[in-house]
Structure formats: C-alpha cells, structure tokens
Amino acid sequence: MTQITARVSDTLVAALDAAARGLKRSRAEIVRQALERYLEDFDDLTVTLERLRDPSDPVLDWEQVRDDLLGSD
Fold it and tell me: Is 34 within 8 Å of 40 (Cβ atoms)?
C-alpha cells in the first residue's frame, strides 16, 4: 500500500479526529473511505456528463414520458 501526504486545515483535522473517535476508526481509515466514496461519485458524475454530452442520445420530453407512463391523454 502506498502512503501519501496532504496538507489540510486545522479545522479539517479537528473534524477528522472527532469523526475517527466517534466511529472508533483511525484517521487513515476515515480518509481512505472518504477518498473511495469521492472517487466513486466522481466516476458516476463523469459517466453522467458523458451521456449528457452525447448527441446521439435522445432527449426525452418529460411531459410525453409522464403521459405515456400514466396513460394520460
């Protein structure tokens, strides 16, 4: 496993220490889990943006979709 170093504010360290105490985890575990979640969200956002920018992906009209699903005229 590779070790990294980052500089963070004293306020962030205090919040990190409080979370670590409350969860009975180490700082490293909290930071590792936070990075994993952030990167998962980043990947999801990247895929979403790629799909939104894809000109071949059809744009659906919300009113039409709602009417089709609800069977409204």
Answer: no
